[in-house]
Amino acid sequence: MSAARSIAASLGLASRDATVLQASNRVTLRLLPCDVLARVSPAADHAAARFELRLAQRLAAEGSPVAVLDPRVPPRVHEHEGHAVTLWRYYEPSARPVIPADYAATLVRLHAGMRALRLPTPHWTDRVEQAQRLVADRDRTPDLVDADRELLDSTLRGLRHAVAAGGHAEQILHGEPHPGNLLPTRSGPLFVDLETCCRGPVEFDLAHAPEDVAGHYPGVDHDLLDACRTLTLAMATTWRWDRRDRLPDGRRLAAEWLSQIRSRV
Length: 265
What we know:
This protein is α+β, with helices and mostly antiparallel strands. 42% of the residues lie in helices and 17% in strands.
């Protein structure tokens, strides 16, 4: 919070108050009265923040449904006392919820914009491997009991190979377009949090959306989608067991998701 306010002040943006909107691997703040959204991460994540910034600029320039940077400040990653900070436009939320048809249409538009990009991005299997390494690291996941550790390991390993063997068409994806990363703004739904961008089949992205969204997305391979849903659920469950995870109520969610995985495999 101190880093975000200091950087905003150095750029001529008054920031007497700060409200935490989200606290997980990054902290997201609303600064007032300048009304800017600040995303704060450790300075070690500077490269990831810079990539997200560049990607958002490219997509916004093509009219893709993504949040934009604050136009009052230079479009770059700012550093202060070990923190990397990016400053974004704050959007007043809409009272109208995003219905499944609009969710799907917004994701279709995002994918269309991403298909036109020529950027080096991680592959979806790289993200699965990150989860596998975390499951295997008992120091990072000390509270994960052996039976659950084996369940997550076998699910991640088995579905990674099964999906990769299918030879499905791939493109640049958001990586985690779940409802928490879709803002219902007054000008329409906008996706945020592009740091998870990767290359893979569109079903990998659809697996993060509510189930009724897929019925409005054209050309879905539903067998692949079912596999991706279980795979992404296992990945999300793994993140919750990381001792560094700060998602509120994360362990309760992890226990619920483990039960869901058992019923799927």
